[in-house]
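Running low. Invent one:
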Amino acid sequence: MPRYFRLFALLLSLLLAGHAAAQEMTPSEAFEAARAGKITLIDIRTPPEWQQTGVAQGATLINMIHPQGAAGFLKEVLAKTGGKMNAPIALICRTGNRTSQVQRFLQAQGLTQVYNIPEGMAGSMSGPGWLARKLPVEACKIC
């Protein structure tokens, strides 16, 4: 193998390593994984949003606008995972925008299995969303 080709292959592998594939799930995949106990499903929307649409069945509600800020949000997420940094969690919001930001934040804090549901509850360019897929919804019990 020519030397320049090996160098190119090494540079390409380093570049791709820095851009790992985003960890994503469809609403259906997240519902099945949560129902099977394989992930913790976390709805990061606000209480008015939970009241408006209901919440994904089995979801843990943690408002991303936490009273103690980012540190309080992280502490609450870790409480739900038993402090395990490698516990699989899936994040859902209205359209997947906020969850992608929160996913990056949690990964930067060292959590390794953080999945985004880019369709969200209401749907987005990624797909129809939890509600349109007619997945189970519960009334907000803490609102």
The chain is about 40% helix and 10% strand.
